[in-house]
Design goal:
It is elongated, with a radius of gyration of 23 Å. The strands form two sheets. The protein has a five-stranded mixed β-sheet with strand order 3-4-1-6-7, with no helix packed on it. Strands 5-2-9-8 form a four-stranded mixed β-sheet. It is built from five helices and nine strands. By secondary structure, the chain is of the alpha/beta class.
């Protein structure tokens, strides 16, 4: 019965912590970067609640069992046990807030063929495509020479953009690309029921080599032609579908 109470208390604590974090991490519309997706307060709350709660429940149960063991040791005074409990709760709260802060970052790496310039896309939820690899907490997207990467990973990460961009030569050597050379498109999706149901999600950006600047980063571009061309190719390769409106 006590274990159930501890579990319910930890869920309540997680809700309070998540709500506070969601309120403080919310970015008003006036301060948002263009072509960047930001969580609403509700989205942030739900995402972090389902991410953090299981971890916090486990930690609280461990804390409870530790407290029970401490209670069996007579040399610990009532005051000391209360002090240790406060310390444990404070530690749990700090860990929870840290995990919540990490969960709202995109943390993607884009590896782009050396010399490539133009539109770059990543398409998610593609049947038969490779899974996204991870590297030191970042998801790695290996862009092909046609400007896209297709993966069976169901969806992308959302939140503050913390991505890294690299040119990669034939030997695998990486050269960092300045974020001033990247203009984000944002996110979108495409669905069709031809032959089999296709429900892909995409994100992308335009990459330049010579016009890197703050103006380029904030500029809006028409990427419809390149996006449609890449989707057509993906549908043909992975689903055997030839669209009538192919470019």
């Amino acid at each position: 019965m006590r274990i159930l109470k501890v579990s319910l208390t930890s869920v309540s604590l997680s809700s309070v912590i998540t709500l506070i974090f969601s309120l403080f991490s919310y970015t008003p519309s006036a301060k948002r970067d263009p072509d960047t997706y930001y969580f609403s307060i509700g989205e942030s709350f739900l995402y972090n609640l389902f991410t953090i709660t299981p971890i916090l429940v486990v930690l609280c149960l461990l804390c409870y069992f530790s407290y029970v063991l401490l209670g069996k040791l007579s040399r610990f005074s009532h005051f000391l046990k209360i002090l240790l409990s406060i310390l444990i709760v404070g530690t749990l709260t700090s860990i929870t807030l840290f995990l919540a802060s990490q969960s709202n970052k995109t943390n993607d790496i884009y590896l782009i063929p050396e010399g490539y310039e133009g539109d770059v896309f990543v398409f998610y939820n593609i049947n038969g495509a490779q899974k996204v690899e991870t590297e030191k907490g970042y998801e790695v997207h290996r862009i092909n020479n046609k400007g896209y990467f297709a993966t069976s990973t169901p969806d992308m990460d959302y939140g503050s953009v913390t991505d890294k961009y690299y040119y990669v030569d034939a030997k695998g050597n990486r050269t960092p690309i300045s974020k001033k050379c990247v203009s984000l498109f944002g996110t979108g999706g495409y669905s069709t029921s031809e032959v089999e149901v296709v429900d892909l999600i995409y994100t992308g950006f335009r990459l330049t080599k010579d016009n890197c600047s703050g103006e380029f980063t904030n500029e809006s571009f028409d990427m419809e032609d390149s996006k449609e061309r890449m989707i057509n190719e993906i549908l043909n390769i992975y689903y055997g579908v030839e669209r009538e409106d192919s470019i």
